[in-house]
Amino acid sequence: MDSGHPPTLRLKVLTVNIHKGFSVFNRRFILHELRDAVRAAAADVVFLQEVHGAHALHSERLLDWPSAPHYEFLADTIWPAYAYGRNAVYPHGDHGNALLSKFPIGRYRNHDVSLTGDERRGLLHCVLHLPPPADELHAICVHLGLARHHRRDQLAGLCRMVLSEVPEGAPVIVAGDFNDWQKRAHDMLRECAGMTEVFVRAHGRAERTFPSHWPMLALDRIYVKNIAACAPVAMPRRPWAHLSDHRPLAAEIRL
């Protein structure tokens, strides 16, 4: 029987800074444990920051270093589609943002938003092809700078990108490590791009995620636009507290 309500698509998203596959203070290489934890979260779309594409020195030194790039190793057989945006390049390797998806990625582009200095930052914009009744979902994986004036310019670039590259009315999810301890992104993204943060919408404040053992700062975020409904999902302290210096965030999204 037709209920009279339009059909909806539900999906779960996860964002986590994986600290290049090492534990807090780089004491241990824990990418295999991270893969287990990411799988257990059962997300449809995963936003990752600080992901190694390659590292010649670590691959020679560590016996359990994967032969594939880390985003491929994490995707494995669970997420058939993935994209990588290389931000930092150095003589022995590179790292950046990655997106893992159970839905096909029609196209993607990595926007370099690095400014002066050694920090290399990027915005990885992926367009996912969703099953009916949805069509396309724009997913943007973010890692912003540590300096306030860098973040201000990078957020302005993010707004321009959303307004110029995302069709009006299309659903958008922007997630990642904003390094926004002063909480300036909320007003800026709402005013310039009409985006709201899922934890702010549900609880009135952003979730504290850093440091993971005793979170004091709300650095990680999930912003949405043109989404029918969203609800934050609480992530357990274990095993995440020893897997990264950032506690991950998750949300249920309805399109």
Structure keywords:
Deoxyribonuclease I, Chain A, 7 helices, globular, six-stranded mixed sheet, alpha+beta, 255 residues
Set out the fold topology.
Blueprint: E1 10-17, H1 31-40, E2 45-55, H2 56-61, H3 70-75, E3 81-90, E4 93-101, E5 105-112, E6 122-129, E7 136-143, H4 148-165, E8 172-177, H5 185-193, E9 196-197, H6 198-203, E10 220-225, E11 229-233, H7 237-240, E12 249-254
Parallel strand pairs: 1-2, 7-8
Antiparallel strand pairs: 1-12, 2-4, 3-4, 5-6, 6-7, 8-10, 9-10, 11-12
What does this structure look like?
A hairpin with a 6-residue loop joins strand 6 (122-129) and strand 7. With 255 residues, the chain is α+β, with helices and mostly antiparallel strands. Strands 3-4-2-1-12-11 form a 6-stranded mixed β-sheet. A 6-stranded mixed β-sheet has the order 5-6-7-8-10-9. Helix 4 packs parallel to helix 5 (185-193). The chain starts with 9 loop residues before the first strand and ends with a strand. It contains 7 helices and 12 strands. It is globular and about 50 Å long.
Short description, anyone?
The chain is of the alpha+beta class and 255 residues long. It contains seven helices and twelve strands. It has one domain: 4-Layer Sandwich (Deoxyribonuclease I, Chain A), CATH 3.60.10.
Helix content range: 10-25%
Integer tally of domains: 1
Task: Give me the CATH superfamily.
Answer: Endonuclease/exonuclease/phosphatase
Number of strands: 12
State which percent range the strand residues make up: 25-35%
Distance between the termini: 21 Å
